[in-house]
Each structure stands twice: as structure tokens, then as C-alpha cells.
Specification:
The chain is an alpha/beta fold and 403 residues long. It contains 15 helices and nine strands. The strands form two sheets. The chain has a six-stranded mixed β-sheet. Helix 12 packs across helix 15.
Length: 403
């Protein structure tokens, strides 16, 4: 989709969008992570809130295994704007991805009973009571919590959630913005999230350079962790802040022992596989076959896939086998009744236009738990157990129960 010039700079455009939201929405909250984008957005939104003498909610979901500098920065922002915000610092046991281990593919931050291995204790002002939110249940997915929070906070009122997503940051974020969705009054920088809640992306067209220009020009507080990342040799486009064990975030796991050596031992001890994951990431930037993969001599991609499955823990093996069975059945119904090819044109595979066992292998080697490389999306936790039982019966019917 071609870019359209607005005739104004990105700062003016963002300010106009934010003012429009304040005019239109009766309830407003900010989804704040402590990163550079959400910090910039927070400053912009709070400028408008102060002009109008209006309070907005600020939601920060504390994932426990985070940089101390990030936590310090979040506290600094809460203090700075304390007269204009309704704070929601959430430190509840959420179900998160652990992409550095097949033996422990998930972990729960702030898990009750594991206080002795928590990376840190939550601040006294954080929401730690599991009964605080009527919709919350221990171990719910991060994405589910975010969605349910918006519905709870908004109630029946027209509600805006400011989110610091930029199209320049990644292809997935760009797709979030251009995909056909319900918009508020046709505004391309909004998406409907259910009930009366809309996400708002006021800085979606900013570049990374714009973020730092804004921060420097106005002398506004930023997360000092980025200064240390710069000193560690990362470019401004490589600098990311999020929970360390995720599928994309694991590439930066090794930075913990450089940037915050006092935090590193706790990060390693918190989940299975963190130390080895960090070593692979530092050496190649490529944990578990992220970029290129190769098969052992004498194997086809299909036989290598089955070898990899056979080496996995039973529960993990069952999970992947179910996903692969659906993948094979979907393509069997669309022109591959005798099975998918061992490999196909790499560009077609990368675009997910054709099936192959090499695609399956790449998913297994990458530890791509939700099989996004096979065009799957994440299954909600509340439906997962039911899904596993249903899939066992379906695999019997399809003849894919041999793995």
C-alpha cells in the first residue's frame, strides 16, 4: 500500500490524532511498556491530558523478568504524571512463552508458590491480588488479559486504548495497521477491539529516528537502558525491550549479562534453557535454526521432521504433531492428496504459498511453538485442553497418528 503525504510532519499529525481522540472518547487509557515508542506516546498523550485537565489510565503489565532500568523508568513516568493518570501497574501470574526450551515451553510470571525464584519482587503499589479484576484467572494469556482489561475498563463507554505501534518497526506491526478491519470513523490509525473499545496508534507513521529526535529536542525522560544498548554496539533499529524468553525477544537474551549483570543470574535461574539460549543467540543471532537450516546426511526433510518429533518430550511432541496434522490435511484438501513435497521453491515457502516438509522442519528447529511458520495463530489458553482432545480424534480419522 503506497504511503500518502499529509502535508504536515509526524509530530503535528500525532498531536492532531490525540486531540481528536480526546474530543471523541469518554474513556482513555494508555498501554505502556516502558519502551521508546510507548514512552514517546505517553509524553504526547499526557501533553494533551494536561492541557485539558483530564486524567487517563496507564496500564503497565509487569512481566517480572524485566530489566531493572525499565522498571525504574516506568516508576519515573508514573511519578512524573501522577496528577494526571489513573495507574494500573499489574503484576499478576500470566502465561508467557519460553522459546528457549522444549522441556518448559511456557512459564508463568509471578507464579504463586515460586516466590523464592522470582527475578524480583513487585512494587508495593502494583496490583497483585488475583481477585482485583473480575475477569482474571491465574495463568491466562498476556494477549487475553490485554483484551479483557479494555472491556472491563471501558464498560459500556466509548473507550480508546493508545498503543505505541509503528509500521516502521516490523512487518507484523505494519500488517496490523493495513489489514482490513473496523475503524473508528474510518480513521486508518484505529482498529476496533470488541465492545466499545478501539485501539489507537497515534505514532504509527513515525520512524525510529523520529522517536529519538522528539526525545532529544524536548529533553524528555527516556528509558536509560537504550543508552547502554547503544554502548553495547546495537543500532537504534536493533534495540528492543520486552520479556526475555519470547520467540522474537530471545535474540536479545544475551544482553542481560552485559547490561545488567546483577539481573542475569536470576534470569538464567528463572526458566529452563535461558543460559543455552543466550549462548546461541550471542554466537549467531540465530537460536534453533532461525535463519538457515540443514538436514543430516541420509535424511529427507520428512524423515528429519519425524526424527525431531521423536526426540521431543511427550507433551511437546503431541502439541507439534497436532499442528502438523492440520497443516497436512489442509493442503491435502487443496491439491496435495498424496502428500506434500519434501521441499519447494524457497521464496514460495517463505511466502507460505506452498507446503513442504522443509517448512515443517524449520518450525521444529526454530521452536516455533504456535507454528506461525505453518500459518497458525496462537490458541487461547482456555480452549487449549479441549483442542488437544479433539485433535487426537481427528488425527485418527485422518491417518496422521503415527508420530
Amino acid at each position: 500500500m503506497p504511503k500518502r503525504e499529509l502535508g504536515i510532519n509526524v509530530l503535528q499529525a500525532a498531536q492532531e490524532r490525540i486531540a481528536f481522540v480526546f474530543d471523541q472518547f469518554s474513556k482513555i487509557y494508555i498501554s505502556f511498556s516502558g519502551g521508546k515508542d510507548s514512552t514517546t506516546m505517553l509524553h504526547l498523550v499526557m501533553d494533551e491530558a494536561k492541557k485539558r485537565g483530564r486524567k487517563v489510565a496507564v496500564l503497565f503489565i509487569d512481566l517480572e523478568a524485566q530489566y531493572k532500568m525499565t522498571i525504574d523508568h516506568v516508576q519515573e513516568m508514573y511519578n512524573l504524571y501522577s496528577d494526571y493518570i489513573e495507574p494500573y501497574w499489574v503484576a499478576l501470574p500470566l502465561h508467557l512463552r519460553n522459546a528457549v526450551s522444549m522441556y518448559e515451553p511456557h512459564w508463568i510470571c509471578w507464579e504463586p508458590g515460586k516466590e523464592d525464584i522470582w527475578v524480583r519482587n513487585p512494587p508495593k503499589t502494583a496490583i497483585t491480588d488475583i481477585n482485583f479484576f473480575p475477569f482474571f484467572r491465574v495463568g491466562m494469556e498476556f494477549e487475553e488479559f490485554v483484551e479483557e482489561f479494555g472491556k472491563w475498563y471501558g464498560g459500556s463507554d466509548l473507550t480508546a486504548c493508545f498503543v505505541g505501534i509503528r509500521a516502521d518497526e516490523s512487518l507484523n506491526r505494519y500488517r496490523t495497521l493495513i489489514t482490513d478491519k473496523i475503524r473508528y470513523q474510518g480513521k486508518s490509525w484505529t482498529t476496533w477491539k470488541g465492545n466499545s473499545v478501539f485501539n489507537v496508534y497515534p505514532i504509527y507513521d513515525w520512524r525510529t529516528e523520529d522517536i529519538w529526535t522528539y526525545s532529544g529536542k524536548f529533553g524528555l525522560p527516556h528509558n536509560r537502558l537504550y543508552d547502554y544498548m547503544h554502548k553495547a554496539g546495537l543500532s537504534i533499529h536493533q534495540q528492543r525491550i520486552c520479556q526475555p524468553y519470547g520467540d522474537d525477544q530471545r535474540k536479545g537474551l544475551w544482553l542481560y549479562h552485559i547490561l545488567e549483570p546483577e539481573t542475569w543470574p536470576k534470569i538464567v535461574a528463572r526458566v529452563n534453557g535461558a543460559n543455552s539460549g543466550a549462548l546461541y543467540a550471542q554466537e549467531t543471532g540465530n537460536i534453533l535454526g532461525r535463519i538457515r537450516i540443514s538436514k543430516p546426511e541420509g535424511h529427507t526433510w520428512e524423515s528429519f521432521s519425524k526424527l525431531l518429533l521423536a526426540s521431543m518430550p511427550p507433551k511437546t511432541k503431541e502439541h507439534y504433531s497436532n499442528k502438523i496434522a492440520v497443516f497436512l490435511k489442509w493442503w491435502a484438501d487443496r491439491g496435495y492428496p498424496n502428500g506434500i513435497p519434501d521441499e519447494a521453491d524457497p521464496k514460495e515457502e517463505a511466502a507460505k504459498k506452498v507446503p513442504s516438509w522443509r517448512r515443517v522442519c524449520k518450525v521444529l528447529l526454530r521452536n516455533d511453538y504456535w507454528c506461525k511458520g505453518l500459518s497458525f495463530s496462537q490458541t487461547k489458553s482456555e480452549a487449549y485442553e479441549k483442542y488437544m482432545k479433539v485433535m487426537k480424534e481427528r488425527r485418527k480419522q485422518w491417518g496422521y497418528l503415527m508420530w
